[in-house]
Amino acid sequence: MSIDVGKRITAPERGASADHGLVPGRALRPRTKVLPEHARGHNRSLVLQSLYRSGRVSRADLARTTGLTRVTISDLVGELIAEGLVVELGQRDDARPGKPAVLLDVDRSATQIIGVDLSEHTVFRGAVLDMDGRILQTAEVELAGSRGSEATAKVLALVDRLVELTTAPVLGIGIGSPGIVEAEGVVAAAPNLGWIDEPLQRLIAERTGLPAFVANDANVAVLAEHGFADAQGDMMLVKVGHGVGSGLLVAGALVFGSRFAAGEIGQVMVGTDAGPEAPYDRERCLEAWLAVPRLAARVEAAEAADEPVEPVLREAGQRLGVALAPIVGALNLSEVVLAGPEDLIDGVLLDAVRQTLRNRTMAGFHSGVTVRMTSQGRDIVLRGCVVMVLSAQLGVS
Fold first, then answer.
1. Backbone phi, then psi, for 109, in 5-degree steps?
2. What do you get for the CA distance between the two ends of the chain, in Å?
3. How far apart are CA 304 and CA 158, in angstroms?
4. Which of 95, 115, 211, 326 suits a disulfide with 385, CB 3.0-4.6 Å?
């Protein structure tokens, strides 16, 4: 059965509009009924969310899970089947009396999603993925020091290639970009790529004719950890790549800040060696110790001098712990997740973060915070793009 992508994108009851991939303050997963004027769109998302997460359930199961009436469920399911979003799988095989229930599921093969990760310091990576975050096709382009319009041209070329690789209607294109990204998908500032007020979302949408969603790479990574790894609703994810950024999830909703710069810890000074009155200096910011190009160069220099690399990694972890301690203390986070090259982060550096947090936060309240590596590996941003598109287009995460 084909899926009516155009209808799905433009229908107002889908929840988030096609102009906004991530909505400030909105919980990622709807769980309850809402006011009548908002009910239909919310209830559609509620049904899709339940099917997406559980799958293979009956209409009666959906009514019990969502709290909606059977009449409402029947109406919504009929609409979703007609649109190609939901399929009937056949009757349930059980011994219970009465007519066997017909099982339902989201049609997971009906559409595909394109994800692009711009956070690495050597390549732009992209993939075609299914609704469950499985990678079907991949493509990448060497960054080779490109900045400004040249970097933008490489992103557009990569997206063109990924569109060619799709084999089903495209639900949307998700992009995880370093830097500060506004709600409309404008990259307000990405110093490492030479972007200022770059309208990346609009450029991609105009180029492809498809819904596009651009967000900060760390925020997109948080979506993957929450959506595919069942991370806690109060967590912080630190993304280490070309630069250093973080995404915050509090009470199940992303935190953006007044100017969409929440989580920009890479530009926070953690080098107080020159004293408390020292002026702001980017060379004493967290990125100076932790960004992949800087950290890798220090490790290589130590190896070339036949010196141990552990002190280099330990200092980087300590600096990160210093930056994280007041955030963990202020928000009482349950988890801090690190994402980036495992050969640099996992081990000495990660242990130093844990120890520094223990030393700098109140025992009994914050010392129990979990500090770990992501379970999503290098593909975390690509998989987060799936959650971003599903959330924006279908209200599913």
1. -100, 0
2. 23
3. 36
4. 115
